[in-house]
Amino acid sequence: MASSVTGNVMPTGCKVFTTIPDLFFIPEFVFGGLVWTLVASTHVRPDNPQGWVMFVSIFCFIMTTLWFFIFICGGNQSSVWPALDAAYHFIAVVLYLSAAVVLAVVTISFQNSSGTPFFKTYQENIAAVVMAYVATLLYFIHAIFSAIRWKSS
User: What is the value of pTM for the model shown?
Assistant: First the structure.
């Protein structure tokens, strides 16, 4: 597996699937989409904190999709793209970490609710919290490798 950390050129086309920082696009899609799906399928209570989680997961999913297509189509060949890549993934880490913490707090409040109607929601929120932290970790690893690529370019 080739690493684009040592090169000065951003990958394009199918090389996106073989470079270390950009290899994380697909898992970011999967786990970010799972957060979005799990939160959307639950009883959204309270609205405001889980609204933030939905905003972050949908925003990062759409932006990562756009970012991925820009890389695939080769629109990332300017010298500014390594810095933009590192900055975007750092911002995604901060957003996802804030959403994961908020979702964990909401999940703890479901644990304290008695009754069976909230048990399924509690289980789905636990899964969403785990997926949110995994997505945060993936964006963090991508941000680190993107920063290394930026500094070496």
Answer: 0.85
